UniProtKB/TrEMBL annotation, chain A:
<dbReference type="Pfam" id="PF02754">
    <property type="entry name" value="CCG"/>
</dbReference>
<dbReference type="InterPro" id="IPR017753">
    <property type="entry name" value="G3P_DH_GlpC_su"/>
</dbReference>
<dbReference type="InterPro" id="IPR017896">
    <property type="entry name" value="4Fe4S_Fe-S-bd"/>
</dbReference>
<feature type="domain" description="4Fe-4S ferredoxin-type">
    <location>
        <begin position="54"/>
        <end position="79"/>
    </location>
</feature>
<dbReference type="InterPro" id="IPR004017">
    <property type="entry name" value="Cys_rich_dom"/>
</dbReference>
<dbReference type="Pfam" id="PF13183">
    <property type="entry name" value="Fer4_8"/>
</dbReference>
<keyword id="KW-0479">Metal-binding</keyword>
<dbReference type="InterPro" id="IPR017900">
    <property type="entry name" value="4Fe4S_Fe_S_CS"/>
</dbReference>
<keyword id="KW-0004">4Fe-4S</keyword>
Automatic annotation (TrEMBL), chain B:
<keyword id="KW-0560">Oxidoreductase</keyword>
<feature type="domain" description="FAD-dependent oxidoreductase 2 FAD-binding">
    <location>
        <begin position="4"/>
        <end position="390"/>
    </location>
</feature>
<dbReference type="Pfam" id="PF00890">
    <property type="entry name" value="FAD_binding_2"/>
</dbReference>
<keyword id="KW-0285">Flavoprotein</keyword>
<dbReference type="GO" id="GO:0004368">
    <property type="term" value="F:glycerol-3-phosphate dehydrogenase (quinone) activity"/>
</dbReference>
<dbReference type="InterPro" id="IPR009158">
    <property type="entry name" value="G3P_DH_GlpB_su"/>
</dbReference>
<keyword id="KW-0288">FMN</keyword>
<dbReference type="InterPro" id="IPR036188">
    <property type="entry name" value="FAD/NAD-bd_sf"/>
</dbReference>
<dbReference type="InterPro" id="IPR003953">
    <property type="entry name" value="FAD-dep_OxRdtase_2_FAD-bd"/>
</dbReference>
């Protein structure tokens, strides 16, 4: 590190490059609505100087940070402002997560429990007394609509169809994530449909764990690190087989590619380049002439694309939107890029609900003005937030591609 | 990915160029490593404020002809026509500005200093004369706890122009709420707090309640990230005439310029990569074939034409180390003194030689690398060598006019 600092002016998270220009605060969705949050410059590089002197300068107000990374997107000097804030929370916070935070953070354990009793869970989570109890006892806001749990997980569905998938001679490996597994297996099935039409079989990881984004956010970074190591070990096997590891969630992807290394110290160098969003992989295969998609003539849709924060940080919006623009019957309207306010488990917490809705107000208003058939976004928690707050359906670009796809024609083109 | 043109840099230059090419129907991508110095902008565009002897310029078009041969304006084929085009481009993006190329007017800095300008956002303080303001008395109504105006300097400098200043301050429930984070009482934050109708109405009541005596009320320019609607409502609702004083950066007028130009570009379908750094490119037979970026390391961005609009030292478009001054993206040829001692003058306010350093271009704004011209890579704006934008007050003008010129050179091909 000393050499990096001396020769290349590089410091951890590029901390020393901060010019104090304050551009990050212009784009912080939290400081716009929350006067008790000191803003990204203050919470990040400014106070880091004090924190380096002693942990008494650490302030729990940092938990108000959404980790949206819009400060990093804005920073002209490439300072990892959001990473500085999250790393400070991991390092200095003495707050021990309670039952609620542990439940929200353990999306896979809770998912397993909830889906086993899915009809009951879904029914119960809609009941006013249950919501009141969650609100009062647990601190999960009563206004929230919980995503429904699926009775059959994607993994269970997949096991029944695994032999069909083995018949192909080319494969991709799919990291489905908790959401596609427990809440919305249709998204995963949509990916399988597209891949199969293109002549690719779908494999799952030998062992898939939740990417850990919610664990990091809720102060459970040790558990996140363990899960991350497990994921990396399984992914390495796919890399050795020469298969890309595709995803349908921008946040899982961002976490495993960037946060694993920056925040959890997991070495992912050998996996990172193979791990990518399915939209990006498809776009690039099509552009390289290695794959072709054919779309239905009768498909018509007007969609408004919402740029999820982590998608913005990845810089991959052109891939998802570029892919959708290939559909002849699709009218794509780009919404002004703003945070929707949910930030994973953040908006579920009672103390954050109001702030979360204030942050998202701009997005909701734009959607109502555009009045599309559906909203599209690469992030599942944005989907919950926008569906709950606007009433519009929200679809992953992969689902829109699957819906518009002419399967037979695509199969012939790629035979 | 394949494009007709790729613009590297998302400030005033990059956006002007990208917008012009997209309007002409080109498939365009703009790649920018974070936000730009437009956030430090005054809300006024200058063409030429001072001549090379340091004298204030009243008629910029005449004075431009007298600039020394190295000045980038000499690579603009018709300065007057391009200036009109730049003014139209701003207006089309929803930026209502006042001023003409016939005669400079004077804008007011946050410190209260008058500076020559060509176009100024409608509503900001503007004067025909350098040493006076158009009012005998003004009321400066500041926001309580506001950090981005150095009030004493402002007031002192306005009084020196022969205008009497009454200083008042006001607050509203929304502003008091925001003050719980005193360090965040900055222009753009306050602007967000005042963004809804209730907050604006309360601001109007607070200003009316001041019983100001001045002929006009001066307010810090904190309203309107993306348009002038809030400013217009305020001017209609308050019963006294209002003018706005641009604040210390990040300034709301600057953010608005950035936002409006970017939106206009994106509405034309231009691809905008908000946070990606171009890491290098592949040169073949005197041409740049493609560039690569940090976020998409395995992607090649092909284009027929490229424009480098990465700015000067502050924006990392130019860098220096113990060996010399260099252009960090492609290692292009630069005009800069080899001798380190010749980079700087002794006093900070002197005419600093490094301000003239920049990328070397030919008469068509094409760059060179190891002495060989690159036939499809243009440079525009602050990355160019040959002038001191601080001393001449010509920074925004050079940005916009050379950006337009590069776009026209591309379209002519």
């Amino acid at each position: 590190m000393a050499e990096e600092i001396q020769k290349k002016s590089k410091s951890a998270f590029n901390f020393e490059q901060c010019l104090k220009c304050s551009i990050c605060t212009v784009y912080c969705p939290v400081s716009a609505v929350e006067p008790d949050y000191p803003g990204p410059k203050q919470s990040g590089p400014d106070n880091e100087r004090y924190r380096l002197k002693g942990m008494e300068f650490f302030n729990e107000s940092l938990k108000m940070c959404l980790n949206c990374k819009r400060c990093e997107v804005a920073c002209p000097q490439d300072v990892k402002v959001g990473d500085i804030i999250q790393a400070a929370r991991i390092r200095y916070s003495t707050h021990t997560p309670g039952l609620r935070d542990r439940m929200l953070a353990n999306t896979d354990i809770v998912g397993t429990l909830a889906h086993n009793f899915a009809p009951l869970t879904n029914f119960a989570l809609k009941l006013a007394p249950v919501k009141a109890a969650l609100h009062g006892v647990m601190g999960i806001d009563r206004h929230r609509t919980f995503p429904a749990y699926s009775f059959q997980t994607f993994e269970q569905w997949y096991r029944r169809h695994e032999t069909e998938q083995r018949r192909f001679d080319r494969f991709i490996t799919y990291f489905h994530g908790c959401y596609a597994n427990y809440n919305y297996p249709q998204l995963a099935k949509d990916l399988v449909k597209i891949m199969n039409a293109c002549g690719y079989g779908v494999r799952l990881l030998e062992k898939e764990k939740c990417c850990g984004v919610a664990l990091i956010a809720n102060g459970l970074s040790k558990q996140a690190r363990r899960q991350g190591e497990t994921n990396m070990a399984s992914m390495r096997k796919a890399v050795v087989r020469g298969e890309p590891i595709l995803t349908t969630s921008s946040t899982c992807t961002f976490t495993m590619r960037d946060e694993y290394k920056h925040l959890l110290g997991i070495d992912n160098d050998d996996v990172r380049d193979s791990l990518t969003l399915a939209t990006r992989w498809l776009y690039r295969m099509i552009e390289d002439g290695k794959l072709r998609l054919a779309f239905r003539d009768d498909f018509r849709m007007k969609t408004a694309y919402h740029s999820a924060c982590h998608m913005e940080r990845l810089g991959w919006i052109p891939y998802s939107t570029g892919l959708m623009k290939m559909i002849p019957g699709l009218e794509l309207v780009m919404l002004e890029s703003q945070c929707c306010g949910i930030a994973g488990t953040y908006g579920f917490k009672k103390e954050n609900y109001e702030r979360s809705q204030k942050i998202g107000a701009g997005v909701f208003k734009q959607i109502e003005e555009v009045d599309p058939d559906c909203v599209s976004t690469d992030c599942e928690t944005c989907k919950w937030q926008i569906e709950m707050s606007t009433g519009y359906d929200v679809k992953n670009p992969i689902s829109i591609i699957a819906e518009a796809l002419d399967v037979e024609k695509t199969r012939r083109l790629n035979a | 990915m394949k494009f007709d043109s790729i613009i590297i840099g998302g400030g005033l230059t990059g956006l002007t160029c990208a917008l012009t090419l997209a309007k002409a129907g080109q498939r365009t991508a703009l790649i920018t490593a974070g936000q730009s110095t437009l956030h430090f902008h005054s809300g006024s565009v200058d063409l030429l404020g001072y001549d090379e002897q340091g004298q204030t310029v009243l008629h910029p078009l005449d004075a431009i002809r007298a600039l020394s041969a190295s000045h980038p304006y000499h690579k603009v084929d018709d300065v007057a026509a391009r200036a009109e085009e730049a003014a139209r481009l701003l207006a089309d993006a929803g930026l209502l500005m006042d001023g003409t190329t016939d005669r400079n007017h004077f804008r007011l800095s946050p410190m209260g200093v008058s500076k020559p300008a060509w176009l100024t956002l409608n509503g900001l303080v503007r004067s025909a004369e350098e040493d006076s303001l158009p009012w005998r008395t003004v009321t400066f109504a500041n926001i309580r706890g506001f950090l981005d105006i150095p009030t004493e300097f402002l007031v002192d400098n306005i009084r020196r122009k022969g205008t009497d200043v009454e200083v008042k301050s006001f607050t509203t429930p929304e502003l008091e709420q925001a003050r719980r984070s005193p360090s965040e009482m900055r222009a753009t934050n306050v602007g967000k707090v005042l963004a809804d109708e209730t907050a604006l109405r309360r601001m109007v009541e607070a200003i009316d309640g001041l019983e100001a005596d001045g002929e006009v009320i001066l307010l810090p320019a904190v309203l309107g990230v993306a348009d002038a609607r809030a400013e217009s409502s305020l001017r209609q609702l308050v019963d006294r005439p209002i003018r706005f004083v641009v604040t210390m950066p990040p300034s709301m007028p600057g953010v608005r310029l950035q936002t409006c130009l970017r939106q206009a570009y994106q509405q034309l379908g231009g691809m905008y990569c908000a946070s990606d750094a171009v890491t290098g490119g592949c040169f073949e037979a005197g041409r740049l074939r493609y560039v690569t970026t940090e976020n998409m390391p395995d992607e090649r961005f092909y284009a027929d034409h490229f424009v480098l609009a990465t700015g000067s030292f502050q924006s990392r478009g130019l860098m220096s180390n113990y060996r010399g001054v260099f252009e960090p993206v492609f290692g292009l040829d630069v005009d800069a003194a080899d001798d380190r001692g010749a980079w700087t003058a002794e006093y900070v306010y002197d005419d600093q030689p490094y301000m003239r350093f920049g990328v070397r271009t030919d008469e068509r704004l094409l760059v060179s690398r190891n002495g060989v011209r690159v036939d499809n890579l243009y440079a525009s704006g602050s990355v160019l060598s040959g002038h001191n934008a601080l001393k001449l007050a010509d920074g925004s003008g050079v940005d916009m006019l050379t950006a337009l010129q590069a776009a026209h050179n591309i379209l002519k091909k």
